[in-house]
Amino acid sequence: MTIQHRTVDIEAAAKLWRDDLSASQIAKRFGVSRNVIVGLAFRNRGLFPWRGDAGKKTRAPGQAKRARHRERAPELKREPEIPATAYDAERLQSAKHLHHLTAGECCWPLNTGGPYLFCAAETTGRYCRNHHARSLPKTNEGKA
Predict the structure, then answer these.
(1) Which CA distances in Å does 119 have to 1, 22, 105, 122, 136?
(2) What is the pLDDT of residues 9-41, one digit of tens each?
(3) Across-strand partners of 122?
(4) pLDDT score for 72
(5) Contact at 8 Å (CB) between 107 and 126?
(6) Predicted TM-score (pTM) of this structure
(7) Which residues are within 8 A (CB) of 129 and not within 5 positions of it... i.e. 6 or more apart?
(8) Pairing with 52, which of 31, 107, 125, 141 sits 20 to 30 Å away (CA)?
(9) Which residues pair with 96 in a beta bridge?
(10) Is residue 23 within 8 Å of residue 38, measured between CB atoms?
């Protein structure tokens, strides 16, 4: 006997549900899958009373899981701001936006607020000679 979505079949399935048969047992009687019965129960909630968590597995008594303690991320240090020089002020007149730079142009940022402008002086590397020298760490020549 296959279940039809007729009122008679739905009520018959609901009666079996109320008699505490599982969705799988009801499905076997009607020759349908368990999901068909679960779908019927979901769509016809008035006829299929909620059973609570009766079918779910419960955890064994014991210690409940605790959330792991998460350490706070370390404070990030701000990079020291590199002060602008007279060379930067001079280059500002021919500066370009990043998306206008081409290969062989210096990509040293000249300002700190948007829109950001870049040096754009001709170079063979990433920075022009002046900005390349400024990008290197200072050496301590006077100390022995």
Answers:
(1) 82, 75, 8, 9, 17
(2) 888 999 999 998 999 999 999 889 999 999 989
(3) 105
(4) 85
(5) yes
(6) 0.43
(7) 123
(8) 31
(9) 118
(10) yes
Q: Where are the alpha helices (DSSP H) in 1-144?
A: 7-18, 23-30, 34-43, 86-91, 129-135
Residue 34's contacts (CB-CB under 8 Å, 6 or more residues apart) are: 23, 24, 27
3-class SS of residue 105? strand
DSSP for residue 55 = T
CA distance 68 to 123: 52
**Residues 45-82: pLDDT tens digits?**
888 888 776 555 666 666 667 777 888 888 888 777 77
**Secondary structure class of 43 (helix, strand, coil):** helix
- Please enumerate in sequence order all residues whose Cβ is within 8 A of that of 31, keeping only pairs 6 or more positions apart, or say none: 1, 2, 3
Contact 40, 13 (CB under 8 A): yes
pLDDT at position 101, please? 93
Task: Judge whether residue 2 has pLDDT over 70.
Answer: no
The more confidently predicted of residues 141 and 29 is 29
Amino acid identity at 85:
T
